[in-house]
Amino acid sequence: MSATAVHSLWTTAADPISKIDAPKIEYGQLSPTLIVIGAALVGVLIEAFVPRRFRYYTQVFVSFVALAAAFAAVVALAADGYGTTRARIAAMGAIAVDGPALFLQGTILLGALAALFTFAERRLDPAAHGNRVDSFAAQAASVPGSDSEKAAVRAGFTTTEVFPLLLFAVGGMLVFPSANDLLTLFVALEVFSLPLYLLCALARRKRLMSQEAAVKYFLLGAFASAFTLFGIALLYGYAGSVSYGTIAQVVDGTVTDIDPALANTMGNDALLLIGAAMLVMGLLFKVAAVPFHMWTPDVYQGAPTPVTGFMAAATKVAAFGALLRVLYVVLPGMRWDWRPVMWAVAIVTMLGGAIVAITQTDIKRLLAYSSIAHAGFILAGVIATTPSGVSSVLFYLAAYSFVTIGAFAVVTLVRDAGGEATHLSKWAGLGRRSPLVAAVFAVFLLAFAGIPLTSGFAGKFAVFKAAAEGGAVPLVVIGVISSAVAAFFYIRVIVLMFFSEPRPEGPTVAVPSPLTMAAIGIGVAVTLVLGVAPQYFLDLASQAGVFVR
Amino acid sequence: MENLIALLIAAPLLGAAVLLVGGRRLDAVGHWIGTLLAAASFVVGLVLFAGLLGRGTEDRTLTQHLFSWIPVAGFQADVTFRLDQLSMTFVLLITGVGSLIHLYSVGYMEHDERRRRFFGYLNLFLAAMLLLVLADNYLLLYVGWEGVGLASYLLIGFWQHKPSAATAAKKAFLVNRVGDMGLSIAIMLMFTTFGTFAFGPVLGHVGDTSEGRLTAIGLMLLLAACGKSAQVPLQSWLGDAMEGPTPVSALIHAATMVTAGVYLIVRSGALFNAAPDAQLAVTVVGAVTLLFGAIVGCAKDDIKKALAGSTMSQIGYMVLAAGLGPVGYVFAIMHLVTHGFFKAGLFLGAGSVMHAMNDEVDMRKYGGLRKYMPVTFVTFGLGYLAIIGFPGLSGFFSKDKIIEAAFAKGGTEGWILGGAALLGAAITAFYMTRVMLMTFFGEERWRNRPTPSPAEPSVEPAAEERGEHAEPHPHESPKVMTIPMIVLAVGSVFGGAFFSLGDRFLHWLEPVTGHQEGHPPVSAWTVTAATLVCLVLGAGLAWAQYGRRPVPAVAPRGSLLTRAARRDLLQDDFNHVVLVRGGEHLTRTLVYLDHSLVDGVVNGTAASVGGLSGRLRRLQNGFARSYAVSMFGGAAVLVAATLLMRAV
Q1: Confidence of residue A15 (pLDDT cuts 50, 70, 90)
Q2: Which of A351, A380, B137, B189 is the least buried, fewest Cβ under 10 Å from its Cβ?
Q3: Per-residue pLDDT, B599
């Protein structure tokens, strides 16, 4: 490949140059990502140098400080107007700093904070040989059921590496929705996916299931990444650039000067269409849209529940952010091509998620299918292709991620001898034995179902309104029908908890440390505040709803 | 002066609040509080009346804006009162007769331990009725309308321990709901037609509205009036409403409630004038009801039910007059006022008789009471003469005018309506004479009781004996009861003449209702003469049947018509067969459809979704390879579809 081609990865300037300039990096504007990645690296060093008994506290402290500082940086950037008037493209065109990016980064960071609390919870599992343990395997490398595992448990080992892994994943997720060229997008995708594959394999109990889930996730994720990468290559062939702005211009026809090295392919619409479809497919895999959703129930069920909560919330936020940017910034010129296809995807996702959830008997799988259905609802907002569509999706993501983290945090509390009691039959009569926990879970379920006075209703209303205004009324009708179907299984759990006789050998509700309580408390508070007084946040989302180009 | 208007309503409303909230500690004085506040309202009414008289004829409309009630863009409802000659007339009637009935109740309800509550309800009744006639828009009127419905429900069912009273209250309430529905639809139609429901704008814009619209509104208003005023076909509640204490009957029949329908029609006169079809319907309803009520009144042995039939019939006269348009509005109201006097007097008299006869209501067990109850006899007799239209008494003036106006309608309609009104006059004379003869004349049938007891009638109140099956000791009622009767009797005697001489009432009311002289096809004197002939015929027939011959203690079987009339001309049977049975069948059909069709569809959908879910679930087989195939297939479809979109 010639120097020209390499060069044109980064800039649209046509004149060839002999040396590469030192890239200009706006550290201040990239600070949220830099803080998190930096802290993750520090976490790796902690694993290497800090004595084992201090690691947990050090890691939790570092992670907490990093996430809080990054969130503060996001708020500071937004307050400086980077979300609106001063929105710009930083890092030599690789990263966009604009409203949607900052809003989603803020959401991811807050969600990650709540997730961090559930990661750090050490009171739920009974102490193993006098050592407080968390949800993660004592030693990831030991074979399940082997002597080395028993030795590790006896020694009171814990996998404190989960904290740097979490931070790496968060770092990737922060970049993902703000990536402004396709290579950055892909790198970010891998940066947040690989730690998640590892985290999925780390369950302390039911380790085989956990590892199976991780392998499945990894295989299918790699498969999807391959599609994405191939799509990126095709798009590069089409546009002669991986920069979002340039591709958009080529799609619109405003750039016509053809790179001689790519004279055979540039402007070939077949490349554009196939490439765009494959790129979008990779993103749809991450948001768990039908038919790219098959991994979701198995992985959600097998992964340690705190990881499931984090993954379900933050991955969805990051992936939808990236999807929005791709569709609104890169491909607006061909929206008449992708809109009908996305319509179909949204419809099968909403209906498929809602219908299959009906017959689920495991609470984690139920929530997995629920997350699929929600992906469909959010897609309805994405398809609107209006500013109100963007802001409604932003609002929905914020609302949804806190409900999800809170709900999975409650799942970690309901336990029996075998660890978490996730089979629905064991939840019968929970409301009689632990009214508070059951009531909190009922709030989350009502929010999932979109009942008024919860954030779920405000979000769903905003999304459907935007979709209807964008001309997608049939989509809204189908969305409401699948909401009705979905309401059935959410309410069924509530009925089960409150109106069924408790089973004598039923699970107990563990008393968590203030960490999990904080996570659940944040979830309930956000759910109710966004449900009762959503206007401020809707305004915030609508201010943040403009992409920089 | 305008600021006094709210006081009219506030006084009885305060009374209701104090009496109902105050609790048992007010038991001793509650009845006087209620009576005083009713009287206070009457005094305020008199002050306002004097003020109105002091103004020019065209300047007699006062309005008081209290507050903005429902201020929504495009939907403005204010609490504004309007006092003009029409509402002034009603205010004086309601508070005047109402206060007298309060006073009477002090004696009548003396031995009822829930007397305080009773007076609270009476005050509530007055307040609601005053709100109804003082409202400046239909929505506020509706509030009063519903308030009257509530108060009547509470009072008819006051003796709720009697199942018959509870049932009667429920019946009155339910039948009234039908009428209320009409009023609410009328108000909605007004809002869509005129964009407002204030009297001024609505009635001022009837000119630029299609007649069809106005007819629809008019018919709905008529339905409302039928409900409150007990007109055919919503008349069935009135007879049963006699289960309430007698003062309540007096209040419902004379001062409040049944007059509301007439008020509504007269108030909406401008609207009806522009909708002749609706007007015709009003006259038909009035004519049918006046005969219906009169026939029912002939067959009843229960003194209160006979009077109830009479009320229905007399209100029919008023509705008939109101349907005649500007020719009749003034006479409708005039008859309403005179009727208020004599019907209140008659009911209070009936209550006095019952009071003396151990609450016996069957006139076949009365007889010869004139000797024992002279005051009741005289006042009741004067009321009787007034209602049959004896020359010179108030019913003569007002009813005669209505009959004239009916003839003046002209054409076949005029003859039919006039004929009906005339026939009604004859029947009125018949049944009222019958009541009079059976109660106060003839042999003392109450002595035929088997239980031995002192023969000599006691002058003392026989309260402790009430409810016992002893032979009654007829006696005159206490002063607190007889004084209101005397006052009302005076009104019954002189009211009509006072209003009619010099056309006082006409000039007073004309600025509001408008008036237009009727021209009957025959001379007015001929009509009057015919009326008098009918009167004599009716009264003579009654005397021949009940005066000359002894009244049997057990009612004879009677003709088919008599038997039907005893059953209120089969109104309840009709309602039962058509409405109740029909409703039951409809409900059963709907329930069946709901179970089989709606539930079938719903459950079927649920079952098929569940089945689908079960089948789709099997796709999730746990093998990563099938998942990958699904993804690959999905990607292929995605790419193909995108390409296809472009190709299309």
Answers
A1: low
A2: B189
A3: 87
Report how far Cα A221 is from the mean position of its chain's Cα atoms: 14
Helix, strand, or coil here: A203?
strand
Letter string b/e over residues A298-322, b meaning 16 or more CB atoms within 10 A of that residue's CB: bbbbbbbbbbbbbbbbbbbbbbbbb
For residue B523, give every residue at least 6 positions away whose Cβ sits within 8 Å of its Cβ, in sequence order, or none: none
Average pLDDT over residues B321-332: 91
Hey, are the CB atoms on B613 and A358 less than 8 Å from each other? Answer: yes
Q: How confident is the model at residue B456 (pLDDT cuts 50, 70, 90)?
A: very low
Residue A337 has pLDDT above 50, yes or no: yes
- Token digits for B273? 């004038």
Torsion of CA A413, A419, A422, A425, to 10 degrees: -100
| pLDDT range class, residue B520, cuts 50, 70, 90 | confident
Q: How confident is residue B278, by pLDDT bands cut at 50, 70 and 90?
A: very high
Element (H, E) at A88: strand A88-90
Query: Would the CB atoms of B620 and A292 count as touching at under 8 Å?
Result: no
Global pTM value? 0.66
- The answer for residues whose C-beta is within 8 angstroms of residue A329's C-beta and 6 or more apart is A96, A180, A244, A245, A248, A547, A549
Residue B120 confidence (pLDDT) above 90:
yes
Chain A residues lying within 8 Å of B633, measured CB to CB = 291
> pLDDT tens digits, residue range B591-636?
998 888 888 888 888 889 889 988 988 888 889 899 999 999 999 9
Instruction: Quote the CA–CA distance of A10 and A12 in Å, as a whole number.
Output: 7
What ipTM does this complex have? 0.89
Tokens representing A313 are: 């919330």
B299 and B565 Cβ atoms separated by less than 8 Å: yes
Mean pLDDT of chain B: 88
| Residue B258 tokens, joined | 């049944």
Name every residue whose Cβ is closer than 8 Å to that of residue A524 and which is 6 or more positions away in sequence. Answer: A406, A440, A443, A444
Judge whether A240 and A258 are in contact, CB under 8 Å: yes
Nearest CB to B631 within list A292, A297, A298? A292
Residue by residue, DSSP assigns B197-235 as: -BHHHHHHTGGGS-HHHHHHHHHHHHHHHHHHHT-TTS-
Q: Do residues A228 and A182 lie in contact, with contact meaning Cβ atoms separated by under 8 Å?
A: no
What is the DSSP pairing of strand A88-90 with strand A95-97? antiparallel
Q: Give residue A511's identity as a one-letter amino acid code.
A: V
Cβ contact A277–B609 (<8 Å):
no
The 3-state DSSP class for residue B281 equals: helix
pLDDT band at A1 (very low <50, low <70, confident <90, very high): very low
**Cα(A212)–Cα(A200) distance, rounded to whole angstroms?**
9
| CA distance readout (Å), B484 to B28, B96, B103, B495 | 22, 10, 7, 16
Helix (H) or strand (E) holding B36: helix B30-53
Q: Which residue has the tokens 């020719």?
A: B327
- Give the whole-angstrom CA distance, residue B5 versus residue B135: 11
Query: Which pLDDT does position A10 carry in this prediction?
Result: 53
Q: Helix H segments across A311-386?
A: 316-325, 335-357, 363-383
> Which residue of chain B is at minimal alpha-carbon distance from A348?
B634
Q: Angle at Cα A467 formed by Cα B613 and Cα A309, nearest 5°? A: 55
Nearest C-alpha neighbor of A13 from the set A125, A117, A114, A93: A93
Residue A265 CA to residue A38 CA, distance in Å, equals 41
State the Cα–Cα distance between residues B245 and B350, nearest whole angstrom: 11
Cα angle at A151 between A147 and A156, to 5 degrees? 150
Question: Nearest CA to B485 among B101, B55, B36, B35?
Answer: B101
pLDDT at B95: 94
How far B288 CA lies from chain A's nearest CA (Å)? Answer: 55
What confidence score (pLDDT) does residue B458 get? 43
